[in-house]
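Morning. Coffee machine broken again, so started the prediction first thing and wrote up yesterday's gels while waiting. Chain of 149 residues, entered below exactly as on the submission form.
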Amino acid sequence: MTDIVTGRPRPIFPALQRLYRPFDTTAETVLRVVAGALLVTHGFGKITNPFGAVGMVEGLGFYPGVFWSPLLAATEFFGGILVAIGLFTRPAAFASMIVLLVTVYFHGIVKAEGLAGAEKSILWAAIFLYFAVRGSNAQSVDAKLGRQI
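Came back before lunch.
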């Protein structure tokens, strides 16, 4: 059964609802901040050497590499910052999700690692898909500005 007001399933143990409800926004914020911050740390090496991945991106079929390599660096580094603080969350998360789907292809297909090699990227892509669709919450810069894309 679902609660008519919230549309959420009713808890089996209603007394626990008082325990969970105060933390749902906080838990979502923690997931957003951690995902963004980890993407920043992953992109830091690329942003300090934006042309360092030219060979890798061209090896994946993205030509010219001198265009795609800095774009990859900026997406990971600055996109991670934007997701972490909750500013332009949807487009930043969408761009990050695309980057991660490419890494799924890279590890799963190109390097022939299958699911074992791609599973982390699949999980990360799913997290960023969530924020691309959901956007940020009340604990974000988007909310403080009162606008969201």
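The CA atoms of residues 25 and 71 lie 32 Å apart. Going to sketch it on the whiteboard this afternoon.
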